[in-house]
Amino acid sequence: MKVYQEEFDVRTSKRTQATDITEKVEKIVKNSKVKNGICLVFLPHATAAIILEESESGLMSDIEEMIKRRFPKGAGYEHDRIDDNADAHLASGFIGQSRIYPVKDYELVRGTWQRALLIELDGPRYRRVFVNVLGE
Ligand code: ZN
Q1: Structure confidence at residue 71 (pLDDT)
Q2: How far, in Å, is the centroid of ligand 1 from the Cα of 71?
Q3: pLDDT of 106-115, one tens digit each?
Q4: How far is the CA of 90 from the centre of ligand 1 (A)?
Q5: Alpha helices in 22-85 (DSSP H)
Q6: What is the count of structural domains for the chain?
Q7: Cα 24 to averaged position of ligand 1 atoms, centre (Å)
Q8: Cα of 118 from ligand 1 centre, angstroms
Q9: Which domain range does residue 6 map to?
Q10: Alpha-carbon distance 120 to 122, whole Å?
């Protein structure tokens, strides 16, 4: 089995922000020369998340606003006694810090609207994205 790995950085500009990283992930899959397998998209971060969703600008705003409503900042969290970002940790943990796509015939298998969105939850920051492509 072949294991191919690349990583890249994303600069975010808001505290809560969805960023479409699909094209970078697809380029890495192409670079991997893996014909059939899986593609892991992973963030080494506890205050960011990855989801597979449509990148229409209105929906990306809806995602950002829903996260703020579901995980309100400063809602009496214990972690805020030592840091000020418990809401970001909770959203990151519950949404998830990785996703997996199948790879078939050298390409990601995804529905038209299943783009890879990095969700910044405690920005602005630089975020690193690891992409591992495994297969044959
Ligand atoms: Zn913290």
Answers
A1: 98
A2: 14
A3: 999 999 999 9
A4: 10
A5: 22-32, 57-70
A6: 1
A7: 28
A8: 19
A9: 2-135
A10: 6
